[in-house]
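All the exercises in this workshop are built on plain-text protein records. An example says more than a description, so a record of this kind follows:
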Amino acid sequence: MSNNHAKAATPPLLSLAFRPLFLGGTLFAVVAIAWWVYFWLTPFNWQPYGGLFWWHGHEMLFGFGAAIVGGFLLTAVANWTGITALQGKRLLVLISAWLTTRLLIAFGGSLPAGIIITADLLYPLLLTIAMAYPIIKVKQWRNLIFIPLLLTLTLLNGVTHWAVTVGETALAMQTLHAAILWFVLIIAFLGGRVIPAFTTTNCRKAQPIRWLEITSITTIILTLIMAWFGFASLPAWLLFVIATIGALSNGGRALRWGIQHCWHEPLLWSLHLAYLFIPLGFLLLALFSIGLIENPSTALHSFTVGAMGGMILAMISRITLGHTGRPLKPPRIITLAYISILLSAAVRVLLPAVAPSYSNWSITLAGGLWVLAYAIYLTTYAHMLITPDIEDTPE
């Protein structure tokens, strides 16, 4: 079969990894948070595998986050190497592994843990293999860094599952906290590549300062390690020093990228503002270390809702346009989605920090704003993900 015939035989949804993984990941983001908020307001008899709080943390990281990262990386590696990593039936296997696990973890709590763990580790392992193949084939060693990164994510997933099965609740949650910092590391690493590059349409690109780049990334890695050991178990002065350096270095790094030139372009300011939740998260960790904030959860939600949720929404709305042959002019309503996700982060992070008695309200309001933001993406972008590229549409 010729390449043209093979392309025609592959449904658009399975032609590139970003299509099903962005669609599935964002749909899951809406359903999972809506379900969580509803359960928070009106508790009912539901016991997912791992327990309620573990389910929420794990699934927003290894369910939602890992799906989007997979879609982004497999699409990027096709551009970097000229080799499409997965499509068609092979891509369907990857998607099936991801989807099956979401259902098993939510509703298969009575099943043997080994079945759920095996299913959940399959997706990141397949993703790692699919990512490694084209990079190794064309000997593009510069991008080989993503293989140990993906294996680290797989290891963190395995450790948190092991901790659940042996009843080490604290370790299970600490490993999830470490996984949050893994996503922060990915955002910082990729954000440092793409945000300045995208912003050059508006201003001259600021050349990276080597020591600042190294410091910002190193503080994230050190914080990841500290999260795994447990923030509360570490010397307060150590967490304060690392978190303060992390706030200053990541904040200084971001402010060099030209945010002041982006206010008229939602596709740009959404990226810049989402990244600023990384230094804010570090600042909140520093405040936690000296007792001004009761719980590190506030800082961690700055990383997850603000940096992760905001950056993902900004990136996927851009990638979906660019990789389906459309101009980089998003529907106007997507600006409301960007505002909603940033407000969601602000409410979830700042309200508990300044008024802990309103924490329940912050969870409800932040969850509603999150659902609104990703529902807007789905209603405006889903058709782009399931239909042919513009240039591939017959006239």
